[in-house]
Amino acid sequence: MIAVSATAIGIPFNIPLAKLTDWLPSGLPWIIIVVLVGAVTTFVATLGYDKVEKFSTIAAPWMILVFLAAAIAVLPELGVKNWGDFFQVAQDKIWTGKPLDGQSKFTFWHILFFAWFCNMAMHIGMADLSILRYAKKWTAGFASAGGMYVGHYIAWLASGILYALFLQQSNENLEFAPGPVAYSAAGITGALCVIIAGWTTANPTIYRAGLALQAIMPKAKTWKITLIVGSITTLAACFPALVMQLLDFVALYGLILMPMGAIIFIDYWLFPRIGLQSNLAAVKNLTFNVAALITWLGSLLACYLIAKTTGLEIFFLGLPGWFLAALIYISSSYAYQKKWSK
Amino acid sequence: MKILLKLVSIAGLILTILPSIGVFYEVISQEENKYFMLIGTLIWFGPKIIFKAK
């Protein structure tokens, strides 16, 4: 999201943007802008979560409306003159079902699965807990679902419309240009929306990654860890290879973390009900839980085999993988915990 | 005062979305819409930030 914000900040400077197929930064101006955005984002994250949370609360309803307004305003340019035209134009010009060269074709199921599972690491993998553990009420968890619905359905619908117009006007230009696209549809407000959307997404992600790392190094100061995480993220954002392959990248790291989410869920909610010990490592003062390792490696291996034999794309694997991880954790814990009950 | 600030900020939010419908029905131009959206944005954030700061 640092790179997304940078595309909007770069508008006045007319910097060359990376293309969908690029691997390396498009030039020094791009690197400078990404580093500046990354530095500001990381600096704010090191100050803590309070300020970001307050600003995000103000910005959220406005951002949704800017997305919607930008999409509605460009519909006539795509040929939608009344609401009755919408579905025909959507089929012919927006979601045509024809992928760009080198990109895989997305069906309804791709969108549905990707909308719910692209942030699998945060929600199903429970990385969200690094922030949600401070929640005052259990209902705070609904924020994840609300965010996904608004961000991954409504905003994606709007960006689909905006990008269709961009492709039409730019003769299938492969440039990665969320900032210029939003600017052309909604002016300065659109560019501001892209900057704020990128910033308010990147900021808590850096902050919670810092908190999660601190669990491994409890003596290290939060701001130092956040600074390190922010620097790594900024460096990664300079390279289009990572940003352009975001779909595959988030699906992969989500899949890697997914078994941990299943382990936490089963350990906390199910184990007390089936006579198994929750938090075994903490209770028995262990540094290593073999059942968790078996679950992690076993479920990832199972997902790999499913993908290999059925040809399923990576972001379809999270759902069956979660249930497999749950089954492996229950069965391996039964065997592993016998040793401790003797 | 609080109620007034709330009403003003809600008006800002309405000004962000409503003109786009005007563009769709060809009542206003795309350029005018962009100005209205910017004014709506300033009206939404201004009172909210002042309100939060207090």
Oligomeric form: heterodimer
**Global outline of chain A:** globular
N- to C-terminal distance of chain A: 51 Å
Low-confidence stretches of chain A: none
Annotate the secondary structure layout.
The complex is a heterodimer of chains A (342) and B (54).
Chain A lengths: L1 H8 L18 H19 L3 H29 L7 H9 L13 H10 L11 H4 L9 H28 L8 H39 L5 H17 L1 H5 L1 H25 L9 H4 L6 H21 L7 H24 L1
Chain B lengths: L1 H23 L5 H24 L1
Helix pairs in contact in B: 1-2
Structural summary, described in words:
- The complex is a heterodimer of chains A (342) and B (54).
- Chain A has 342 residues and is mainly alpha-helical.
- Chain A has 2 domains: 243 residues, no CATH class; 97 residues, no CATH class.
- Helix content of chain A is 71%, strand content 0%.
- The radius of gyration of chain A is 22 Å and the shape is globular.
- With 54 residues, chain B is mainly alpha-helical.
- Chain B is built from 2 helices and no strands.
- Chain B starts with a helix and ends with a helix.
- At the A-B interface, helix 3 and helix 8 of A face helix 1 and helix 2 of B.
Question: Could you write a compact summary of the structure shown?
Answer:
The complex is a heterodimer of chains A (342) and B (54). Chain A is an all-alpha fold.
Please give a handful of descriptors for the protein shown.
heterodimer; A: 342 residues; mainly alpha; 71% helix; globular; B: 54 residues; 87% helix
